[in-house]
Amino acid sequence: MNQKALERQKEIYLNGFAGKIPVIPFTSYGLEEAAKGVLSKKAFAYIAGGAGEEKTVKQNRTAFDKWQIVPQMLKNVSERDSSIILLNKKLPSPFLLAPVGVLSLAHRDADLAVAKAAASENIPYIFSNQASVPMEVCAQAMNNQTKWFQLYWSKSRDLVISFLQRAEKCGCEALVVTLDTTMLGWRPRDLQLAYLPFLEGKGIAQYTSDPVFTDMLKTYQSQQAKRTINIQTLHGLISMVNHYPGNGFFKKLKSGLPIKAVQLFTEMYTNPYTTWDDLQFLREHTSLPIFLKGILHAQDAQRALDYGVDGIIVSNHGGRQVDGAIATLDALPQISKVVNKQIPILLDSGVRSGADVFKAIALGADAVCFGRPYVYALAILGENGVKQWIKNIKAEFELTMALSGYSQPSEINIDCLQTVVTQ
Ligand code: FNR
């Protein structure tokens, strides 16, 4: 049995009795507000922002409000187990941590702090292609706890192969291919501040630690754009050099590699040419199960089945790519119908609470991924913040499930919900 919710509640209240008040807020709104208070303006804009008018960001949330849980009573929920089986592995709760890039914006320990927190709570962590810490470093900190790798399909096939090989070697158990970012979405908050963290050398650690990428750098002829030197460009340059691996600031600066790395990265990190047939290339170069992230259309879910992938993630990238795109929870029922339990379905974008996890499962998801909430917890209190947040969300889900009359996620289905009746 995997029932921890009451222990967590007790721990919090007993701590309070001894005068210790929790630092990590319990609501998504509180988390965002607290994180806003500690993050720089640019960092907060990058993390919280979405595409366009941020209508999809909002609808990702309101989609959950269209459904109500209808609890049932007297069902003996004394024995509870929130665990699920995903890819033949038992997970303590039906959720994972989504891949989020440039975590050094949130906290100096970045991905490593998240990796340690996830491992200590036995929650799978999907390493981002745009991580601030190389996958090998995070993987080592996680020992044999579940880790996956998320790939952005680069223009260089050699680099893709290298990423796949590294992911396998460091013990990742699945490959997540993000399909919705063949180019960067139109994000007004970042545009208004004219800020893109990658240009400061942030979030490119998977590249600068890669043998294929560093080989390419040796022969890369950069386009030296003439730039005005001012405090701002100097700040960017210092950041680029500091984020480049190795010691000796001036040695790195003189080598020119930090600047070239940023330029080469921006030229090759996305690939708008990819089509469904290219999946064959990935299949040929990895034996890992492949999950497609960014599926929103039922026809794409059918294609995913036809192309023999191992799972899908219903995602709109937290509303960061196409403003006006369908909310993921709204897309889920049709996709679930098409998939018909043939492969696992994960869902992310707007998932904020135990009730949200419950609703997503009821509508056909096997598990969900969280994005921004754990990033806010990281910003507020580093590794410990993420750990506290995971403990809270685990407990909240278990209590929601039990108080609704269910002892395990497999009992949750569409009959547990009704749509909101408008008078
Ligand atoms: C992301 N996301 C993302 N996805 C991905 O596949 N690779 C990545 O590197 C990133 N980077 C990233 C950075 C930031 C700051 C955010 C907020 C999101 C998308 C992420 O995996 C996930 O789909 C969303 O975050 C889910 O939505 P919520 O939970 O943030 O609403």
Molecules bound to protein: ligand FNR
The total count of helices amounts to: 18
Uncertain stretches of 5 or more adjacent residues: none
Rg computed from alpha carbons, rounded to a whole number of angstroms: 22 Å
Note the main sheet.
Answer: 8 strands, parallel
List SSEs in N-to-C order: HHHHEEEEHEHEHEHHHHHHHEHEHEHEHE
Assembly type of the chains comes to: single chain
Mean pLDDT across residues: 97
Strands side by side in the biggest sheet:
4-11-10-9-8-7-6-5
Euclidean distance between termini CA atoms:
42 Å
- Helix % is 40-55%
Percent range for β-strand residues: 5-15%
Kindly state the number of beta strands: 12
The structure class reads: alpha/beta
What features would you describe in this structure?
The structure is a single chain. It is globular, with a radius of gyration of 22 Å. It is built from 18 helices and twelve strands. The protein is of the alpha/beta class and 423 residues long. Strands 4-11-10-9-8-7-6-5 form an eight-stranded parallel sheet. A two-stranded antiparallel sheet has the order 1-12. A two-stranded antiparallel ribbon has the order 2-3. The protein has helices spanning 5-17, 28-38, 41-48, 55-65, 110-120, 135-141, 157-169, 188-193, 205-208, 211-219, 231-243, 249-255, 257-268, 279-285, 298-306, 328-339, 354-362, 372-403, and strands at 67-69, 84-86, 89-91, 95-97, 125-127, 147-151, 175-178, 290-295, 311-314, 345-347, 367-370, 417-419. Helix 1 (5-17) crosses helix 18, helix 10 packs across helix 13 (257-268) and helix 11 crosses helix 13. The chain binds ligand FNR. The site of ligand FNR has 24 residues, from helix 3.
